[in-house]
Write a structure and sequence with these properties.
The chain has 379 residues and is of the alpha+beta class. It contains 13 helices and 8 strands.
Length: 379
C-alpha cells in the first residue's frame, strides 16, 4: 500500500503545487495588469507561466524522487537525477529568456507610445531586437555549458580544453573571421544608427524596406515582395542610400521629352491641378521647368514632394500618367515625333526672298538670274 501511495503523493503533490502556484501567479499578474495600464510589462509576464511551471515541477521532482522507494528508482537513481537536472537547467534557461524578452518588449512598447519621432522608434526597435538576440545566445550557451558539465567525463574534457585554450582561440579566430566581422558590424549598425528596421534603402540598385536585422545578416523586402539577404558587413563597408535617414519626407522628379513647341505655361497650370487632386502630395513644394534641349526635343522636369518614399512614387506615377494623357488629348503637337516632310512656311515676302521661294518670278520688272555656284575639283 505504501509503495502505491508514496509515488502518487510525490508526483501528484508536485503537479498540484505546480498548478496552484502557476494559477496564483497568473491571477496576480492579471490583477496588476488591470491596475497599471501605463505599462504592458505585467501582461507580458503572463507568457512566462509555462516555463515557470516546468521549472517548479522539475525542481520538486528532483528534490523528492528519492522518497519513492521503488526498485526501478533505486536501480536508476543516478540516471533519473541526471535527466531531471538537465530538464531543470533547460527550463531555467527558457524562463530567463522569456523574462528578458518581456522586459525588452515592454521597454520598447513604452518608448514607442511616448515618442512621436518614427526614426527614433525604428532605432530603438533595432537596438532592442539585437539586444534580445544577444541575451538569448548568451543564455543558451551558458545553459548548454552547464548541462555538459553535469557529466563527469565532460569535466575532464573541459580541463584539457582549458589547457589548450590559447591555440584553440587563435584557430577559431582565424576560421571565424568573417563571422566575427559580421557580429561586430551588427553591433555597429544597431548602436551607430546607420540603418534601422523599417528604413527605405537602395542597395545594388534594388529599392526596398529593411525588414529584419540580426547579428550576422540583414533582410530587405523589395517593392515586388522579394527578400534580399546580405551580410551586415555590407552596410559598414560599402555606400548605400538610406531614404529614411534625416526624415521620411521625399522630393521626386518626373522628366518629359517633348517637342520644342510644348506649351510650358499651360503645363505648369495643369501640374498644379494634378497635384491638387492627388492625395499623396503633401503640399510642400512643386515646380516645372525646361532643364535641357536637343536638336529634336526639350527636357521638361517636374518636381514634386511627398511625406515618404511610398507616396513620392505614387505622386510621380500620377503626374507622369495624367500629364502625358493631357498632352495627347489637348496638345498632340507637343509630343516628340519623327519629321518626314518639310515644315510649312509662314506667309511673307521677306521670308520668300531669304529662302529663294520666288526664284524665277519677275521682281521690279525683271527676272532675277541665280548666281552660279563656283565649280570645284578637276575638269
Amino acid at each position: 500500500m505504501e509503495n502505491t501511495l508514496r509515488p502518487l503523493l510525490v508526483v501528484g503533490g508536485s503537479l498540484a503545487i505546480t498548478l496552484a502556484v502557476g494559477w496564483l501567479v497568473d491571477q496576480l499578474l492579471r490583477r496588476a495588469d488591470s491596475r497599471h495600464h501605463e505599462t504592458p510589462v505585467w501582461g507580458l509576464l503572463r507568457r512566462c507561466r509555462p516555463p515557470l511551471q516546468v521549472v517548479l515541477c522539475t525542481a520538486l521532482l528532483r528534490a523528492s524522487f528519492g522518497q519513492l522507494r521503488l526498485e526501478v528508482v533505486r536501480d536508476h537513481r543516478a540516471a533519473i537525477g541526471q535527466v531531471l537536472t538537465l530538464v531543470l537547467i533547460a527550463a531555467s534557461a527558457w524562463l530567463v529568456i522569456r523574462v528578458a524578452a518581456t522586459v525588452v518588449q515592454s521597454s520598447y512598447a513604452r518608448y514607442a507610445t511616448s515618442t512621436r519621432d518614427p526614426a527614433r522608434v525604428r532605432r530603438v526597435r533595432t537596438q532592442v531586437t539585437l539586444i534580445q538576440r544577444v541575451v538569448t545566445a548568451v543564455v543558451a550557451t551558458v545553459a548548454v555549458a552547464a548541462m555538459l558539465l553535469t557529466f563527469p567525463a565532460m569535466r575532464t574534457v573541459g580541463t584539457s580544453m582549458l589547457a589548450s585554450a590559447g591555440v584553440l582561440g587563435i584557430v577559431a579566430g582565424v576560421a571565424a573571421q568573417s563571422t566575427l566581422g559580421n557580429l561586430f558590424a551588427g553591433f555597429q549598425i544597431a548602436f551607430g544608427d546607420m540603418v534601422r528596421i523599417g528604413d527605405t534603402v537602395v542597395v545594388d540598385g534594388e529599392w526596398g524596406t529593411v525588414e529584419e536585422i540580426t547579428l550576422t545578416f540583414l533582410a530587405v523586402r523589395t517593392w515586388d515582395e522579394r527578400r534580399i539577404t546580405m551580410p551586415v558587413s555590407y552596410f559598414t563597408s560599402r555606400p548605400f542610400e538610406n531614404w529614411s535617414r534625416g526624415g521620411a519626407q521625399m522630393t521626386g522628379t518626373v522628366f518629359f521629352q517633348l517637342d520644342h513647341s510644348a506649351p510650358i505655361r499651360a503645363m505648369r497650370e495643369r501640374l498644379r491641378d494634378i497635384l491638387g487632386d492627388c492625395g499623396a502630395w503633401d503640399g510642400r513644394d512643386w515646380s516645372l521647368a525646361v532643364t535641357d534641349t536637343t536638336p529634336t526635343t526639350i527636357e521638361v522636369r517636374a518636381v514634386v514632394t511627398a511625406k515618404d518614399a511610398d507616396d513620392i512614387w505614387t505622386v510621380r506615377c500620377a503626374v507622369r500618367e495624367q500629364m502625358i494623357g493631357w498632352l495627347r488629348d489637348n496638345h498632340p503637337y507637343a509630343l516628340p515625333r519623327v519629321v518626314t516632310s518639310p515644315a510649312a512656311l509662314p506667309p511673307g515676302d521677306h521670308w520668300r526672298e531669304l529662302t529663294g521661294a520666288d526664284a524665277g518670278r519677275p521682281v521690279n520688272g525683271h527676272v532675277p538670274t541665280p548666281e552660279k555656284a563656283p565649280r570645284t575639283g578637276r575638269g
